[in-house]
Structures are given as C-alpha cells and as structure tokens.
Prior knowledge:
This protein has one helix at residues 18-25, and strands spanning 30-34, 40-41, 56-60, 64-73, 87-94, 99-104, 117-126, 129-136. The protein has a single domain (18-150), classed as CATH 2.40.50.840. 5% of the residues lie in helices and 36% in strands. The N and C termini lie close together (10 Å). A hairpin with a 4-residue loop joins β5 and β6. The structure holds zinc ion.
Amino acid sequence: xxxxxxxxxxxxxxxxxxxxxxxxxxxxxxxxxxxxxxxxxxxxxxxxxxxxxxxxxxxxxxxxxxxxxxxxxxxxxxxxxxxxxxxxxxxxxxxxxxxxxxxxxxxxxxxxxxxxxxxxxxxxxxxxxxxxxxxxxxxxxxxxxxxxxxx
Length: 151
Ligand SMILES: [Zn+2]
C-alpha cells in the first residue's frame, strides 16, 4: 500500500501530540507525564488536569493493560474502513493509569471480558504513520500487529 492509496482517516499531529506519533513510529507508546505533579495523562494535551501545569515530559509505557470496555463496529463511519468490517475497538486501562482507545486485533467472535489482559501492537499504516492496536495478552513475541499491511 502506498501513501497515494491509503484511504483511511489520518491524524494531524499537533505540537502537543507529535511526540506520541513519533514514538509509535519507533514502536514505542509514549505518554505525557506532568513534570510538576507526575500525573500521567492520555490523550496528549498541553495542560495537566491535576495541577494545571504546562510542564510535560514523555515516558515510555509498558504497552500492557486490561480491557475496560469494547464495541464491535459493523457500520463504516468512513468508506476507508468498509473493507475492515466488522472490527473491535477496545478501551484499555493501561498499567500507567490512563485509558486508551484502539483497534483490537482479534476475530470479532473472540470471547472478551472486562479485565482481560491485552498488550500493545503497532501497525505501519503507511510511510510515516504507525497506529496503535492491541492483542489479547499471550506469550510476548514482538510489537508487530498480526494483520498489519506493509512494514
Ligand atoms: Zn500536574
């Protein structure tokens, strides 16, 4: 798949979120941490929810978490996702104490439960764009998504 044929929505990184996207390109999940009160936050944003500080540093997350909730998508909200249907989106409670939404790379008929352990995988969507996803935690192998496209 080339950049010209990629038909899905793409993020538009901001100065606040650029380190997050750059981290994924390096197969790292980076989370913002307040440099004043050390609270971790996600999604990337300029101000700490707890102390309102603008001071931020980036920390690498473990990529481990548990399922908080999930939904199975049957309707394409954008034509670029039509061929993927149906697929599962999970909200994950990361070990670092924040929640994150991403695709679950598992058959949609997989039995899921709240609290089930998952781990991060990355999918090279197109050159310069790496997307996060999750798989059910199993013996760790690598961070590559099982159904990803070009690498
Ligand atoms: Zn803070």
